[in-house]
TetR/AcrR family transcriptional regulator
Amino acid sequence: MRRRLPRAERRAQLLDVATSCFGERGYHPTSMDDIAEAAGVTKPVLYQHFDSKEDLYIAVIEHIGEVLRARIDDFAFEGASTKERVREGIEVFFGVFDTRSSMLKLFFGSEYVTERVQEEVTRATSRAAESVGSLLARARELSPEQAVVVGRTFVTSVQAIAREADGASDERRELMLSSLAKLLTGGIRAFEPRNDELTKNPE
């Protein structure tokens, strides 16, 4: 007999399954029936947790945004150089999204679903940009306003490269990522390093 999951655990399971389904097929081709079947539940159970496919998709976007920020925080170790922070930041974005996933296309601007979904995508990417800016401000002398600008520039640049890298060979993808890392590192190094950064990691 199948074990009945607690509500929070069931919701988390449904989110994981929905993320996979939407990521593989995209929003419009994926139905609530598809997700319920993949999760091994009935459609009424799915609707107990999410009022509509749009609500479920927005919950998936929120979840991915949380994962993205958590990954950024994970590599915010003390003593890392600016170059290491930049490259790791780029890898975080590409690691969270499969480059052939519709989720990457959604987050990075080449797939539109609904206005509500787009608003949540904008919020999620803005929060990620804030996290990146805060991280880089640990290495360079950035005012809060400058950190916001740098974070947004970082995310916008990664968005552009992500679109180009979609479907590219591993060799070309690495070339694009390394070139972007050099470009962003050079720009960030235009700001003065913090004293503790010089002590721990002279450039």
Residues 53-74 form the longest helix (22 residues). The chain has two domains: 1-50, 68-200.
